[in-house]
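debug: dumping io for the single-chain case to check the tokenizer round-trip. Nothing else runs in this session.
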Amino acid sequence: MLSVIIITKNESLHIRRCLKSVSWADEIIIIDSGSEDETVDICKEFTPHVFITDWPGFGLQKQRALDKASQKWVLSIDADEVISSNLKEEILSSISSDAFDSYQIPRLSSYCGKDIKHGGWWPDYVVRLFKCNTGEFSPDLVHEQIIINGSIGKLNNPILHEAFINPEEVLTKINSYSSLGAQKLFNNGKKITLAGAIIRGCWTFFRTYIIKASCLDGSEGLMLAISNAEGTYYKYLKLRSLNLNNSKS
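debug: decoded output
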């Protein structure tokens, strides 16, 4: 009744814990975009449905996984997420009752070992559970969404999301996501000045730390606000670079 879909690349630090938490599902679909670590070997311990492809962006890659799902219901999770035993039982109960076509699930994210309850990170409801024929992924390079044609309910137990395990992973993800975000903005015809990039970065820090109160999460809350600001600044700085390079060509 349930297919779990996951996209991966170099996720050996997370993927085993993730797959153990969904090993009860009827089917697990993995789409890998060329991992250079042990990710693919670990995935094959849990499922025969492991496919290696190119990288077209988050939205299209997740749609590829969805297209291979054969069960009535689909649960889309990321490699750094875990389904708790309580959430498992709630999922099984919900898909059995058939009351809704899809469900939003709260997500509890950790930053360098601390669960974050402020800064816009909680409860962070995301649509992840849906009937296979009622949902599709937007084709965005990054920050894709599941577009639902049907009713949407809410679950209570959260997905556990190990967003960043250490400062090294923070820097790696800032670099990756800022590049994808810049390319998405560039493709949409957006432009920015250096001053604009600086202002947006400063505003992101103020919004995260003060308005959304990540200051209440202690030192990790401060680190989160700084890294959010850095990610925004570099996204727009890279957009500026793309526009400058394009004007020279």
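debug: round-trip ok. The two ends are 52 Å apart (CA to CA).
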